[in-house]
Write a structure and sequence with these properties.
The chain is elongated and about 75 Å long. By secondary structure, the protein is an alpha/beta fold. The two termini are about 35 Å apart. An eight-stranded mixed beta sheet has the order 1-10-9-8-2-5-4-3, with helices on both faces. A two-stranded antiparallel ribbon has the order 6-7.
């Protein structure tokens, strides 16, 4: 996916900014002495007087929030920071390093894959009276999708709502139940399920799900305690028995997934998946799903069809959330990079994982969260989102 998106070079962005400056702010390149006090406010500042390539260099070191604040300082910077090619550059540069994405913030990758607009066209569209709403707003896409922006600009609760939320969190509520499945539980060098069961500092085990009904072939699940307050029950569904899973992992082979029944169309050869009988029982009682994806592999085997089969409205409500844990076994080793450059990563970016799994085609709320199995970093962020989607009142913020 990443190779299909046209890249934006720094020189292209500088040319776009230079054309914008020359066309709309021709007098901003030199500082002149003010004749009177009325003209003093119109004189360009030091940053405006810098060459455009240096202005662009400064902007590359600013956070998205700082760029927006810079754009609020004057008319000149408002125009410069809204350059579409600038934000396309930032979007393509930073998007592979976002650690989460959801159904509300997923960028429109098909528009990013479209041919780049001409720099002159992007400037002509700024003429007064020209409709620019139909153009792709890279700035809006960046601010909507970036995890740092989503967290920084979440609306804060009023003081009385904070107290109400805290009191509600003290009231015992029904323990939500989730079905967990996916190749990331079976293919990685570090076992996700084993690590999860022995991580009392992250998500302590609160006991077996004795209060829940037993499901043939699945059991009653294991209950965990989130934030020392909220219980959640997880039913683990493996694709096959342990011996076959271990053999497939060591030999890097695909195995028949016994969670699904498969029907092959005789004419087209298309595979149609459906939940096996014992999985249907699970789909009827759970409040949501956890899909553990293998982010160390570029491709999966029939993943979108299998996810769609479990989340199909035939087996339950489309309001039930899907949390995708995009897992790698351990962090990459420390590698030297240039200042201002993201470190090299060997995982599938969460945005590309969402595309690979076909999540945009689902009617259910979903989220992809990067997780490192060895440390379980990122797991609590995903669980927090899942509980909120299930109606659990979390006392945070």
């Amino acid at each position: 996916m990443a190779g299909q998106v046209p890249r934006v070079s720094e020189s292209s962005v500088v040319r776009s900014l230079r054309r914008l400056k020359d066309r709309y702010f021709p007098d901003s390149g030199a500082v002149t002495a003010a004749v009177d006090t009325d003209q003093e406010d119109s004189q360009p500042g030091f940053l405006e007087s810098l060459p455009v390539d240096l202005q662009f260099l400064v902007m590359t070191f600013l956070s998205p929030a700082d760029l927006c604040l810079l754009g609020a300082t004057c008319h000149y910077w408002r125009g410069m920071v809204r350059d579409p090619l600038l934000w396309r550059f930032f979007l393509l540069r930073d998007m592979p390093f976002w650690n989460s994405i959801d159904h509300l913030s997923m960028p429109q990758l098909e528009l990013l894959a479209a041919p780049l607009i001409d720099v002159k066209e992007s400037l002509d569209d700024r003429e007064e009276g020209v409709d620019t709403e139909s153009k792709f707003d890279y700035m809006a896409e960046y601010l909507r999708g970036s995890p740092s922006c989503r967290q920084q600009w979440l609306p804060s609760l009023a003081p009385y709502k904070v107290v109400t939320s805290f009191l509600q969190s003290l009231v015992a509520s029904a323990e939500p139940r989730y079905a967990m499945f996916g190749p990331g539980m079976e293919q990685l060098d570090v076992s996700f399920v084993t690590r999860l069961m022995y991580a009392p500092d992250v998500l302590p085990v609160a006991g077996s799900g004795t209060s829940h009904r037993q499901i043939d072939g699945i059991g009653s699940g294991i209950s965990y305690l989130f934030n020392n307050q909220h219980k959640l029950n997880i039913l683990t569904m493996y694709s096959t028995n342990r011996a076959e899973r271990e053999r497939a992992r060591t030999q890097q082979q695909n195995i028949t997934n016994k969670l699904f029944t498969v029907v092959v169309n005789a004419e087209s050869g298309v595979l149609t998946f459906g939940p096996a009988p014992h999985v249907q029982q699970v789909c009827q009682v759970v409040d949501g799903f956890i899909y553990v994806a293998n982010a160390e592999r570029d491709k999966g085997e029939n993943e979108p069809a299998q996810i769609q089969a479990l989340l199909s409205s035939a087996w339950g409500s489309t309001t039930r959330p899907l949390l995708v844990l995009s897992c790698i076994s351990r962090e990459d080793g420390e590698e030297e990079t240039q200042p201002g450059v993201h470190p090299i990563t060997k995982r599938v970016p969460c945005v590309h994982m969402a595309k690979r799994l076909g999540l945009s085609m689902l009617g259910n709320p979903w989220m992809v969260q990067d997780v490192v199995v060895e440390s379980l970093s990122g797991l609590l962020d995903g669980i927090s989102w899942l509980l909120r989607c299930s109606g659990v009142k979390l006392h945070s913020r």
